[in-house]
Amino acid sequence: MRASIACSLIISTYNWPQALELCLASVLNQTQLPNEIIVSDDGSTFETRNMVESFIAKSTIPIKHIWHEDDGFQLAKIRNKSINAAAFDYIIQIDADIILHPNFIEDHLEIAEQGYFITGSRTLLSEELSKNVLKNKTVKFGSYIKGSKNFLNGLRNKTLRNYFSTRYKITGKNKFDVKGCNMSFWKTDLITVNGYDEQYSGWGREDSDIAIRLINSGIKKKYLKMGGIEYHIFHKEVDRKNLEENTIKMNNSILNNIKWAEKGLSQYQ
User: pLDDT digits over 159-185, tens only?
Assistant: First the structure.
């Protein structure tokens, strides 16, 4: 049982306060609350700030709003700033277009272990269902959701969760398969690899890169299957024009056993 670990929950967001509101509501509905919430804001306008301030006023959990000016897609940079601001030893990382299952944080903390980082998956809500979820401010779902894809990702079983954690997608081509919207780490491990590499700009591969550098540094991967459930609100894909360049950087980290981000977390410490 690991639910006693103190943790910071980092939520990455950009100009979608309606989704962030549901995400935060699902956080407050957790069986195991985080010790603090950090809204990691990549340059949103005042609507997001106002919404966050309204949650701060009613939340029993400390909420920090880490913001920088909009300079394009700078997810690695705002995550580093948020990691630096985290007050607790364990960090759980999600995105603001995610609604959490009530046991999400509990699942991460129960399988947390020194020497490991954790990644999981998500259940994809259809466009039509997502519109209804946003309209009705839905934050609770059943085991089977009509209008969702890969619904098996929405099933929870603690026995299977524990079994799969060190067996599923941890070898071969799946070794570096991660979802940045569903990850957790020991803060000391993130410091060891210098956090996210801010040389990644635009969408893509910054999550895989940090997983590669953690694994190259001897930190093993656990995969949350049948646990750590989250529901992804549909949205149009962001611009992926930098994906090819970022993929080249990622492959270089694999080929050259890179462990340290040249432009990373240490800038803010």
Answer: 999 999 999 999 988 899 899 999 999
Average pLDDT, the chain: 93
81 conformational bin, left if phi > 0, alpha if psi -120 to 50, beta if neither: alpha
* Structure token pair of residue 192: 């060891």
Q: Which domains does the chain have, with CATH numbers?
A: 7-268 (3.90.550.10)
CA 235-238-240 angle, to 5 degrees, is: 145
Q: Where are the alpha helices (DSSP H) in 40-194?
A: 46-58, 75-85, 104-111, 127-136, 158-164, 187-192
- The DSSP code for 35 is S
Determine the straight-line distance between the first and last CA of the chain, rounded to whole angstroms.
Answer: 32
The dihedral built from the CA positions of residue 104, 131, 51 and 94, taken in this order, carries a sign that is: positive
- 3-state SS, residue 212: helix
Tokens, residue 122: 């998500």
Whether the per-residue pLDDT at 192 is higher than 90: the answer is: yes
**Which residue in this structure is represented by tokens 């839905």?**
138
Strand 90-95 relative to strand 123-125: parallel, antiparallel, unpaired? unpaired
- Give the pLDDT mean for 88-115: 97
Residues whose CB falls within 8 Å of the CB of residue 184, separated by 6 or more in sequence, listed in order: 7, 90, 91, 92, 93, 108, 112, 117, 118
In 3D space, the residue among 109, 100, 88 whose CA is nearest the CA of residue 4 turns out to be 109
pLDDT of 100 reads: 97
Cα–Cα distance, 248 to 267 (Å, whole number): 24
Report residue 218 as tokens.
């001897």
Structure tokens at 194: 């210098």
pTM: 0.95
On the 0-12 / 13-18 / 19+ scale of CB atoms within 10 A, 81 is buried
